[in-house]
Write a structure and sequence with these properties.
alpha+beta, elongated, Umud Fragment, subunit A, about 20% strand, seven-stranded antiparallel beta sheet
Amino acid sequence: MEEKLFWVGILVGLHLFFSEEFKKRKKFENISFSILWHRSFLAIFAFSFGLLLAVVFDNRNGEIVTAQLFTLKQVIVGLIAAMIGWIYVDLPFSKIKKEKTSSQLPEYIKKDLEWSETLFSAVIMASIVMYIFLQAFKIPSGSMRVTFLEGDHLFVNKLIYGVRIPLTDKKVLKLRDVKRRDIVIFRFPSEDPEEFQCGGHQYGKDFIKRVIGLPGDTVEIKDGIVFINGKKQDDENYAQFTDSIRYPGVCSKVSTTTFQNYWEKRESGKLFSEYVRDNFGPIKVPEGFYFVMGDNRDRSCDSRYWGPVPEINIKGKPLIIYWPPNRIGIPK
């Protein structure tokens, strides 16, 4: 969302820049030109509003794709809104078009400049805050029950694991490293928009899971029980199991090296389906990657199925549940 806000801010900023240039050149002394420019402002304002409104509705419906700037549907909604804003100018200014030129800056252009300055500052500041410090996130599924419920709205602390430098795989300002049992929000680890995982295309979507395995850890699951480096993890009081049966494993039918290769290529779920749910591995988590699982172990599509999460994909840690009111609190 922060990148979307940033580019909307750039669009408004361009209008503000050219408005100041035209003001210096006294272009607005021409009534026809000033109305044309006012028309463009309303179109840009309506386009931005329609575009962001479509993004908000898509996010609320779970269609959250963070790797894609805007979808075609969102752009079309924005363009329709822009047309409405453009046409609207004809109504209040039908009589003004017939007036002669004026040496004064029209009142509606003055208001446009004020609004442009306000919107530009607010949108750019909001995008910076969201990119560095805070992100809103909605729980899309039941994979983290009962820690989080479907529809919970969270604020995410994005600064804790560092800020990603745009267009690079580097982070700065890191407060601390990712720890075992941290709940993290991350971008799904796939660079292929056509890759099919967890019943759909997950490219660019944000997921929320709990970190189970750290870089270098050996992870194995036996009848639903997690073992890290050969040690049973018997203190997972957050884990929930809803099925009364445990699926048999298939890892014994392939070599450890072969299964590790399948897993790192995100093919374990495609090849073995639910047979990796309760009996999995052992695998070794590569350096720079993490093994994550949902707390609702029998209803979570996670690293067992689609492999490790790169550290650079991790965006932050849940800070607080802010909606609904009866769920407000700090997650554990």
